[in-house]
Amino acid sequence: MKRSIVGVSLVVGVICFNVSLFAAPPGLEKKDKTPQGFTKGEKTGWKGEVPPGWDKKTDEEKAKWNDDVKKGKEEVTKAAEAKGLTKEEAEAAADEVEKAARKGVDPEAGATAVKEDLESGKKGKELSDSVAEKTEKKLKKDKDKNSEEKSSAKGMGKKKGKGKKK
């Protein structure tokens, strides 16, 4: 009798343990559902093939950006071909300039980052990952710099020489 109780308890314990292994962690059961409040309000960000704020740019600004991206891609293509990359690899490297520019990095800075990575022997996914990392760092640095400038601009309106009264 004791053996059968121990045996049944052991089987139940093993079943419970296995069930817990295959249970979905909290939140995953909602994976394919629309988040609460998502259907309300206007969504921001990219709409189509152009970045937010594109419509606010003048035709000259748009043309300059397009020209800068094209120039950067051409420079990278030449640099990649000079390093002995295939035409497809060179085109993929050149596309990294546009990816960086579409995220908000100046096209010239994007081209420079890609060329630096080409010089260090990177290509393919390694090149893509490295440029993406540099792009994120550049954007974060620019964001931090802009925040710092805004903070110091707010402080400029304060009168100098007057401290807190004790």
Textual characterization of the structure:
The protein is mainly α and about 170 residues long. About 65% of the residues lie in helices and about 0% in strands. It has a domain at about 60-150. α2 (about 60-80) runs parallel beside α4 (about 105-120), α3 runs parallel beside α5 and α4 (about 105-120) packs across α5. The longest helix has about 30 residues, at about 125-155. The N and C termini lie far apart (about 85 Å).
Q: What would a concise description of this structure say?
A:
The protein is mostly helical and 166 residues long. Helices cover 64% and strands 0% of the residues.
Q: Which characteristics define this entry?
A:
166 residues, mainly alpha, 64% helix, elongated
* Structural class determined from secondary elements: mainly alpha
Biggest sheet features: none
Percent helix, as a range, is 55-70%
- Overall geometry comes to elongated
Query: Radius of gyration in whole Å, from Cα?
Result: 28 Å
List SSEs in N-to-C order: HHHHH
Low-confidence stretches: none
Average residue-wise pLDDT: 77
How much of the sequence lies in strands comes to under 5%
Number of helices: 5
Q: Based on DSSP secondary structure assignment, what is the total number of beta strands?
A: 0
Present the secondary structure layout:
Layout: H1 2-22, H2 59-82, H3 87-103, H4 107-119, H5 124-155
Helix pairs in contact: 2-3, 2-4, 3-4, 3-5, 4-5
